[in-house]
Amino acid sequence: MTTPQKPIRAAGCVLWRHSPSGEGIELALVHRPKWADWSHPKGKLKRGEDARQGAVREVLEETGVTCDLGPELPTARYQVEGRPKEVRYWAAEATGGSFEPNREVDRMLWLPPAAACSRLTQARDKELVAALVSALHVTREGL
What we know:
The protein is α+β, with helices and mostly antiparallel strands. It has helices at residues 51-63, 113-119, 123-136, and strands spanning 8-18, 25-32, 37-39, 42-44, 65-80, 83-97, 107-111. Helix 2 (113-119) runs antiparallel to helix 3 (123-136).
């Protein structure tokens, strides 16, 4: 009988800002060339790192943007190469900084929630957009 593997621990954010137009919000999506996908900023936790600290660090590393954490969103659980992975997510409001392409992320887009859902690669990331909209009490018109 095999013992269950410990899950890979990771954290990230659904990063948002008020739209420059003044109507609704926009979400930051990152493109990771290694995986050829669009996702929310996230990454593995460092040894001994708290998930909240890891989420903020990953957002800054991948997007160049500082943020304030808001409510916790649902945890994503899935398999990576046969090993369980758990990613804790928070809603996070962008507070400053600017994007510079880096070794993990080559592009970043700010999109309204509905457009973000269309662009996201994984269904689990689309579910997080709905959770963010609910947590922030954004009206359907904000989509």
